[in-house]
Amino acid sequence: MCHAGTMERRRGDSYLGKEFSEPAGLPEDVHVAKKIQCVDCHETGPGGMGHINRKATCQDCHIEIEQAMAESVHKKLACAACHVKVLGGYEMTSWGPGEILSKPNPFKKYSLYYGPQEPPILLRDQNGRWMPTKIWPNSAGGIKENIVPKPGITFRWPKGETHDAYALLGTFRVPSGNNNYLAWLQIEEVAHPYGKSRPCGSCHDSETQISRVTWKYFDTQGAEPFTGSQKVVADKSGLQIRDIKATSKIVPMPDGKTISFAAWLYLGDIWKTHGDFSIPKSDPVKYRSFSKDLRTVQARLKVIDRQLMKKESRGDDVKKLRRKWKEAKAVALHEPGSAETLLDQLGILVQ
Length: 351
Ligand code: HEC
Ligand code: HEC
Ligand code: HEC
Ligand code: HEC
What we know:
Elements: H1 13-16, H2 38-41, E1 42-45, E2 48-56, H3 59-71, H4 79-83, E3 93-100, E4 103-110, E5 113-114, E6 117-118, E7 121-124, E8 130-143, E9 154-155, E10 165-173, E11 180-189, H5 201-204, E12 209-217, E13 226-235, E14 238-246, H6 258-261, H7 264-267, E15 272-274, H8 284-313, H9 319-334, H10 336-350
Parallel strand pairs: 3-8
Antiparallel strand pairs: 1-2, 3-4, 5-12, 6-12, 7-8, 8-11, 9-10, 10-11, 12-13, 13-14, 14-15
Helix pairs in contact: 3-9, 8-9, 8-10, 9-10
The protein binds heme C (4 copies).
Residues 30-31, 34, 36, 40-41, 56, 58, 60-62, 79, 83, 194, 196-197 line the site of one heme C (HEC).
């Protein structure tokens, strides 16, 4: 947690949330309160605790949900696709002249543009699985050569060791700027903090995905703190950052040049790449039937819950049945179809 930043996504402060998140005050992961540790989900590597692997497992505790999900219309979704709703860390970088270790340097990274991004944008990973991602614009001035853009997104590890990607947008000239500006979109898979699921409509009401971002700039160089916002839009025609703007006055420090710490002011609407990044429209018949099944099993769960509560208030020992009920509920919420049999059995047992 020492070096938070966008890199917070690489260190787990998004798991702890609250005062440990950047910005502070983001939700903590639902597992924190249950005293679940990093290594309960993450395997450790050869170096022990300091080397937790980026692979994680839920099986130890939610096996019935994993099994239910494997049968579901959502079998190609990561758990986090529904259960992660807000992200932190930095939302922009602008590399330009400034000071590093008190010496002038053409590549100072102005990156303290911190804020929440909500909700995550869903993208397909190398295997076609839908994962939630955090996406933000980057630019680096002082580049001598011309770099041509690469269409679409590129996975850093094509074979799938991680699912992080980027879109290389090429170089752009700014009159009186700092040579060429190399621009790219950073795209990271995210997995904390888990919490309640997003509602169906937040993914299915529109094929276009829009994520809203607000940030505060507070680097020690460049300018006094100021605030701003932008949108990440993913639709049928592409993936882009829209409407980047400051929402309070920018007051440069004595040596601060906006072109260095805020090249985005001059670069305009360049952060975009083509391709289909929409959420496919679901078959309305299937959608209605899935929603109806959900309502049916939930109503049945309620009936059994009442019967169990009656028994519990009489002091009957129904711990086993209660456990079964919880399991049936967890399954029902993810794949109502496969909960039917469990509910039939439970219904008979509680009689
Ligand atoms: C409830 C299970 C769970 C717990 C507990 C957990 N993680 Fe994770 N974490 C995951 C999953 C799932 C991923 C995504 C794995 C992948 O990329 O394949 C992940 C990803 C990560 C990543 C990659 C970046 C990101 O945000 O996606 C880091 C770093 C990380 N975890 C660190 C930690 C640290 C440090 C802790 C404890 C403070 C922790 N995790 C606790 C499940 C967990
Ligand atoms: C060591 C056990 C353990 C592991 C491992 C674990 N969980 Fe959990 N999880 C829990 C407990 C306990 C709760 C509290 C709620 C409950 O009683 O089910 C919980 C709750 C949740 C919730 C709460 C959802 C809500 O609506 O409140 C989600 C989502 C979740 N876990 C996802 C995961 C995912 C995804 C993984 C794997 C990356 C994982 N968990 C790994 C024990 C675990
Ligand atoms: C399509 C969206 C979606 C996906 C994908 C998804 N869930 Fe859920 N999950 C829900 C909804 C909806 C609920 C009920 C509302 C809530 O508690 O968030 C839920 C509830 C839960 C709960 C709480 C169960 C309870 O008894 O209250 C846990 C634990 C959980 N999910 C774990 C997982 C795990 C683990 C995965 C991946 C194997 C997963 N979910 C994938 C939508 C999803
Ligand atoms: C986090 C985003 C997300 C949430 C929340 C979500 N879905 Fe989905 N859903 C998807 C995606 C993405 C697909 C496409 C999966 C694929 O490519 O296999 C999908 C597929 C489906 C399908 C299959 C569509 C078809 O034509 O085959 C149905 C039905 C569906 N969802 C219903 C629901 C319902 C009902 C809810 C709420 C309980 C829900 N979804 C919640 C993202 C979501």
